[in-house]
Design goal:
2 helices; Motility-assoc_prot_GldC; Gliding motility protein GldC; three-stranded antiparallel beta sheet; alpha+beta; 5 strands
Length: 112
């Protein structure tokens, strides 16, 4: 039996259509009205054979938060790509780039 699931994103914008607040809900994940400051949504368009994207961030998102957000997003993309394709060599290259990115953005985590 097939199941349907829904993820809901509510965005409140200012007079210039810049997001002021974003909240999301995912009933299957137990999330209801969680606040977010940024999102990157990427969907594969089967017919056009390309990625359709929505990138949004709130007016209060800081540059330092954006650097962290992109770094973490790049790392999770490497993880997802490896799980989806089994391509270990290129994902290691992607992770190496993430270290380079973190170094250049001065967001390297402290060494323990």
């Amino acid at each position: 039996m097939d199941k349907s699931s829904q993820i809901k994103i509510d965005i409140n914008t200012n007079e210039n259509n810049v997001p002021k607040t974003m909240h999301w809900s995912a009933e299957d994940g137990g999330v209801e009205g969680a606040e977010a400051k940024a999102m990157i949504l990427s969907l594969w368009d089967k017919k056009q054979q390309n990625a359709m994207r929505i990138d949004l961030w709130t007016e209060e998102m800081t540059v330092d938060e954006m650097k962290q957000f992109f770094h973490q997003t790049l790392l999770t993309m490497a993880d997802s790509f490896e799980r989806a394709t089994g391509e270990k060599n290129i994902t290691e290259d992607l992770r190496d780039y993430c270290l380079h990115f973190a170094d250049k953005m001065d967001i390297m985590p402290p060494l323990s």
